[in-house]
Design goal:
Radius of gyration of chain A: 22 Å
Structural class of chain B: alpha/beta
Distance between the termini of chain B: 39 Å
Shape of chain B: globular
Helix content of chain A: 55-70%
Number of helices of chain B: 13
Shape of chain A: globular
Strand content of chain A: under 5%
Number of strands of chain A: 2
Distance between the termini of chain A: 53 Å
Largest sheet of chain A: 2 strands, antiparallel
CATH superfamily of one domain in chain B: NADH-ubiquinone oxidoreductase 51kDa subunit
Oligomer: heterodimer
Order of helices and strands of chain A: HHHHHHEEHHHHHHHH
Helix content of chain B: 25-40%
Strand order of the largest sheet of chain B: 1-14-13-17-15-16
Largest sheet of chain B: 6 strands, mixed
Strand order of the largest sheet of chain A: 1-2
Chain lengths: ~325, ~450
C-alpha cells in the first residue's frame, strides 16, 4: 500500500463542478446565431457586406485589445464579446458604408461605451446601439444612403428603405401602394441595413438562441408583440388607405425591430435580469419604437428605443427586485 | 406515484454515476482508526476512554449530556493508543480517539437488541444507536424523530434522491438493504404515527424504484409508496424534496415538522432497520469512492474512523497524485486538506480529483445573464447577493433573502463567468448574522 500521504490538497468552497458553458461559449452562440443574417446580407448586397463586417469585427477586437494593453488591464479579447459587438454594429449599417466611418463606430462602441465604463458587464448602454446612433448623427447622409438590393432590376444604385417610404406616405407625398409588400420584407429583398433586411434569417438565429437557452424569449416576444399591437390599434384608428393588419406585419418586419428584438435588446448587461423586468423592458422598447416611427422625424426608432430602455434598466431592475424579495419570504413557484 | 405538476428550478449537473453497478465491498479492518468526537451538529462528545484502554466493537467511547448530541461508538476492537486533536475540514479542532485494532472484532457486551415499546424507548433507542442524519447534515436523528408537534406530523419522506453527481452509496443501500429500509421505515412511522410514507427516488434509479414497488406489493404494505423525482440537481435537498413530494413550501427557519413532514435519508432508515435486528450501533458506513485520481472506483463499507488514505488504498490507491479530495459530492461536499483525516458518520463519498479535474476556472466579470437566478430552487438572485456581499451591505443581503440560501451551489455551477456565488452567499450569511438583522 502506498504510504505517501497528501497533506497539501487544494481547499476551495463547493461546488467543485462547473458547467461547460462560459462567457466565451455564450458569445460564440450569439455569433453562430448571426450567421443566417450575415449570409442574407451577402446574398442581398454582395461581397461588400463581408468586407464591412470583417472591418467592424477586427477593429472592435483591436480596440479592446489596445485599450486593455494601454491601461495595463488583463486581456479580455478571448471572451469574444468585442467580436459580437463589432458584428452587431456591422449588421446595423448600410452595406455601402465607408470603412473608416465604421471604424469610428467601433471605437465609440468598444472604447467609449464599453471599456471606459469598466469593460464587459459594466457598460450601461448597449455598445453596438450607441455606436450606431453616433454614426447616424455624425454621418447622416452615409447612414441613410441605402444601396439597392441585388434583386432590384431598376437602374438605380440607391433606394429608400421600407420605413423611409412609409414616412413619405405618412406625409402624403406617396401613395400607400408604393410600400413594399410584407413578403419581400420577410424574406429580405427590400433595402435596409445589412442584418435587418431579412426577417426570416433573424428568426432562425433568434430561435437558435432561444433553443440553446442563451436568451430568454420574453424580451423579443414582448418587444415584437408590442410593435404589432401598437400599430394594429394605431392604423385601425387612423383608417384611410391603410389595412391595419398588413401595417402591423409591416412594422414588425420592416427596419430594425426583428434584429433589435433578438440581438440588441437581449444584451444581458443592459437589460433587466428578472422576468418581470424583461417584460417591462420589451414592452417599453416596442412603445418607444412606435412613438418614434409614427410621430417623430426619424423614420426608424429601434436604436433610440433600446438606448432609452437601457437607461431605464437599473431603475426597472431595482423596482422589480425590491417588489419581488422585500415582501415576505422568497416565493417558490414562480417560473 | 409520480411528481407534482410544479417543480422548483433545478439544474442538470450531470450524473457521473460511474459506480452505480458496483456491489458494495466490505473493507478489511485497517491498521489504525481515529474516531472523531464531533460527528454531529451540536455539542461534541467527551472521550470516555483513555490511552491504554481496551475497547470492543460497539462500546460507547464518547458521550455528553448536551441536548443536541449522540454517543460515539468504537468501530473496532483493540487498544486506545492516544487521544489526539486534529484540525477538521471545517477549520475547527476535533478530538480524536486513536485505536489500534486487534482485528478480532469482538462485540461489546453493551450491544443488545433494542426493546421499543413506546415513544420514550423509541427515542432512547435512536439516540443510543448513534444515528445522525446520514444525508450530510449529521443532525441527531432522535431529536428530529421527537417533534414537539407530533400530532400534526402525518407524512414521512425517505430521501433516496441522491442528486449529487458521482455518489451511488444510497443507490446501493436501496438495492442491497431494501428490507432494512422498509422495516426501519415502518417502525419509524409507527412511533411518529404518520399515516403516509414516501420513498422518494430520482427517476435515474429505475431498478431501485422497481425493487421497492415489488417488495411493498409483496408484503402488502399500504402506507408506504415510492415517489419518482426528476433526475435533476438538487431534488434531494430537504426543502426541495418536501415541495416536490407534498407541494408544501418550506422556507428557511421553518422546520419540516411544522409542515407535518419529517424527512430522513434512506441510509439512516436502512441503518435503523438493521439496528432493530442486531442492536449494533452506527460504526461502519457505506460510501462511494470515485474521482479520476482513484485507481478502482467502488462502493465500500468502511469502519468509522478509517483514514481516507487507507480507504483509497483499498480502492487500488491513487492513479495520479490527488489535487483535491472531497468528503461528499462535488456540489456540496467539503474539500479537505489532508488524506489523513478519518471517515465520519455522515460520509457518503470520498472523491479524489487529479489536478485536471480539480482545476478552478478563472473568475471573470458578471454579464448579468441571470442564469444564477433561473437555477436557484428558491428563486433567489445570487448576482444581486454577490454585489451586496462585495459591498458588505448587510441590509441588502437580508432584503434579498440571503438566509434562504441552502448553499446547493447551483448558481456557481451555471455561472458562465465562473463566479463563486454560493461561496459569497455563505459569507453573506455571516455578514447578516454579525449585523444582527432579523
Amino acid at each position: 500500500m502506498d504510504k505517501n500521504y497528501y497533506n497539501n490538497l487544494t481547499v476551495s468552497s463547493s461546488p467543485h463542478l462547473v458547467t461547460t458553458l462560459d462567457t466565451q461559449k455564450t458569445m460564440l452562440m450569439v455569433l453562430i446565431a448571426l450567421v443566417p443574417s450575415f449570409i442574407m446580407s451577402i446574398v442581398v448586397f454582395g461581397a461588400r457586406s463581408i468586407a464591412l463586417t470583417a472591418v467592424c469585427a477586427i477593429s472592435a477586437v483591436f480596440f479592446e485589445w489596445a485599450y486593455n494593453k494601454l491601461m495595463k488591464k488583463p486581456d479580455t479579447v478571448k471572451d469574444l464579446s468585442a467580436c459580437v459587438t463589432g458584428v452587431i454594429l456591422a449588421m446595423n449599417l448600410p452595406s455601402s458604408f465607408p470603412f473608416w466611418m465604421a471604424i469610428i463606430g467601433t471605437f465609440v462602441s468598444i472604447v467609449i461605451v464599453k471599456c471606459m465604463f469598466g469593460g464587459l458587464g459594466r457598460n450601461i448602454a448597449n455598445p453596438a446601439i450607441v455606436g450606431r446612433i453616433v454614426l447616424l448623427l455624425s454621418f447622416t447622409t452615409q447612414m441613410t444612403t441605402w444601396p439597392v438590393t441585388r434583386m432590384d432590376n431598376t437602374d438605380a444604385t440607391t433606394g429608400a428603405t421600407a420605413l423611409g417610404i412609409l414616412s413619405e406616405v405618412a406625409k402624403g407625398k406617396q401613395d400607400v401602394s408604393t410600400l413594399p409588400d410584407n413578403l419581400s420584407l420577410f424574406l429580405g429583398t427590400c433595402g435596409g441595413s445589412m442584418g435587418e433586411v431579412s426577417a426570416i434569417a433573424i428568426l432562425i438565429g433568434g430561435a437558435f438562441l432561444i433553443w440553446k437557452k442563451i436568451i430568454s424569449p420574453i424580451i423579443p416576444v414582448s418587444f415584437i408583440a408590442t410593435v404589432f399591437v401598437f400599430s394594429l390599434i394605431y392604423y385601425a384608428i387612423v383608417g384611410g388607405d391603410y389595412n391595419a393588419f398588413n401595417m402591423a406585419i409591416f412594422h414588425v418586419c420592416a427596419g430594425g425591430v426583428m434584429f433589435g428584438a433578438f440581438f440588441c435588446a437581449t444584451d444581458y448587461v443592459t437589460s433587466p435580469i428578472m422576468s418581470k423586468g424583461k417584460l417591462i423592458f420589451g414592452i417599453g422598447c416596442g412603445v418607444v419604437t412606435m412613438v418614434i416611427r409614427i410621430w417623430c422625424s426619424y423614420p426608424e426608432g429601434v436604436s433610440f428605443a433600446i438606448l432609452f430602455m437601457n437607461m431605464l434598466t437599473p431603475l426597472i431592475d431595482s423596482k422589480v427586485i425590491r417588489n419581488y424579495y422585500c415582501k415576505g419570504g422568497a416565493k417558490k413557484d414562480e417560473k | 406515484m409520480s411528481s407534482n405538476a410544479k417543480h422548483l428550478h433545478s439544474i442538470d449537473a450531470g450524473h457521473y454515476k460511474n459506480t452505480a453497478g458496483c456491489e458494495t465491498e466490505v473493507m478489511p479492518i485497517p491498521d489504525i482508526v481515529k474516531i472523531s468526537m464531533s460527528q454531529n451538529i451540536g455539542a461534541p462528545c467527551k472521550p470516555l476512554v483513555k490511552k491504554g484502554d481496551e475497547v470492543k466493537v460497539g462500546q460507547v467511547i464518547g458521550d455528553t449530556d448536551a441536548f443536541v448530541s449522540v454517543p460515539v461508538h468504537a468501530s473496532v476492537s483493540g487498544t486506545v493508543t492516544g487521544i489526539e486533536t486534529q484540525r477538521n475540514a471545517m477549520g475547527g479542532m476535533d478530538t480524536l480517539v486513536v485505536i489500534e485494532p486487534d482485528k478480532k472484532q469482538e462485540l461489546s457486551e453493551e450491544i443488545k437488541v433494542p426493546e421499543i415499546t413506546d415513544m420514550d424507548s423509541f427515542v432512547a433507542a435512536v439516540r443510543a444507536s448513534g444515528l445522525v442524519g446520514l444525508g450530510g447534515a449529521s443532525f441527531p436523528t432522535h431529536i428530529k424523530f421527537n417533534p414537539k408537534n407530533k400530532d400534526e406530523v402525518d407524512t414521512f419522506i425517505i430521501n433516496g434522491a441522491e442528486c449529487e453527481p458521482f455518489i451511488t452509496s444510497d443507490h446501493r443501500t436501496m438495492l442491497e438493504d431494501t428490507q432494512n429500509v422498509i422495516d426501519g421505515a415502518l417502525e419509524i412511522m409507527k412511533y411518529l404515527e404518520t399515516s403516509q410514507g414516501y420513498i422518494a427516488i430520482e427517476e435515474n434509479k429505475p431498478d431501485a424504484i422497481a425493487l421497492f414497488d415489488k417488495m411493498i406489493a409483496e408484503q402488502g404494505i399500504t402506507n408506504l409508496k415510492t415517489f419518482k423525482l426528476q433526475a435533476r440537481y438538487p431534488k434531494g435537498a430537504e426543502r426541495v424534496l418536501i415541495y416536490e413530494v407534498t407541494g408544501k413550501e418550506c422556507p428557511a427557519g421553518v422546520l419540516p415538522a411544522d409542515l407535518g413532514v419529517i424527512v430522513s435519508n434512506v441510509t439512516s432508515v436502512a441503518f435503523f432497520g438493521q439496528y432493530l435486528k442486531d442492536g449494533i450501533p452506527l460504526i461502519k458506513k457505506r460510501m462511494t469512492v470515485d474521482g479520476d485520481a482513484v485507481k478502482t472506483p467502488k462502493n465500500i463499507i468502511a469502519p468509522i474512523g478509517t483514514l481516507i488514505h487507507d480507504v483509497i488504498g483499498f480502492c487500488g490507491g491513487y492513479k495520479t497524485a490527488p489535487k483535491k479530495i472531497l468528503m461528499g459530492g462535488p456540489m456540496m461536499g467539503r474539500a479537505i486538506f489532508s488524506d489523513q483525516m478519518p471517515i465520519v458518520k455522515n460520509n457518503n463519498a470520498i472523491l479524489a480529483f487529479s489536478e485536471e479535474q480539480a482545476y478552478i476556472p478563472e473568475e471573470t466579470a458578471c454579464i448579468n445573464c441571470g442564469r444564477c437566478h433561473q437555477a436557484c430552487p428558491f428563486n433567489l438572485l445570487p448576482t444581486g447577493l454577490a454585489e451586496a456581499y462585495e459591498n458588505h451591505d448587510a441590509q441588502m443581503l437580508s432584503d434579498l433573502q440571503v438566509m434562504q440560501c441552502m448553499e446547493c451551489g447551483s448558481c456557481s455551477f451555471v455561472c458562465p463567468a465562473r463566479r463563486p456565488l454560493a461561496f459569497m452567499n455563505k459569507l453573506g450569511k455571516g455578514i447578516v448574522k454579525e449585523a444582527g438583522i432579523k
